[in-house]
Amino acid sequence: MADSERLSAPGCWIACTNFSRTRKGILLFAEIILCLVILICFSAPANGQAYYSSLPVFEMILAAVFFVIYMCDLHTKIQFINWPWSDFFRALIAAILFLITSIIVLVEKGKASKIIAGVLGLISTCLFGYDAYITFPFRQQRHTAAPTDPADGP
């Protein structure tokens, strides 16, 4: 049993590292890191306004869950969830919520760390928006032109 676990481990590691090099893997990893940095910036001032930090925590967890699902190839094994639409709505809602939160934070004019978090929130809006754009399910369905018979003329 130990031999079979040892033999399957390199295959799993290769699959994990292969996904992390794809465009979707890099995008999800960047979302996780950016949400972590925004969370640190929102948590830096000790003024009791921790309600802004719930959005980056929630989106960081969701991005990590989708990263693991795609990395372990679970989206092909679990068929009762439509993964492209789920990922699209996750990214779209995150982009909208980060935009709203960033505008509110930047209008309030707080400490420097709050302003940095607002600017990083605008950057994350672009990142999540790009993720929603490349994940949009209808965009991925490419149709090829039907072959036509050459017209020889009358």
TrEMBL record:
It holds the Pfam family MARVEL. Keywords: Membrane, Transmembrane, Transmembrane helix. It is found in: Membrane. GO terms for cellular component: plasma membrane. It comes from the Eukaryota. The keyword Cell inner membrane does not apply. GO terms for molecular function: chemokine binding. The chain crosses the membrane at residues 26-45, 57-76, 88-107, 113-133. The keyword Manganese does not apply. Residues 19-140 form the MARVEL domain. It is a multi-pass membrane protein. InterPro entries: Marvel (IPR008253), MARVEL-CKLF_proteins (IPR050578). May play a role in cell differentiation in the intestinal epithelium. This is Proteolipid protein 2. It comes from Loxodonta africana (African elephant). The lineage of its organism: Eukaryota, Metazoa, Chordata, Craniata, Vertebrata.
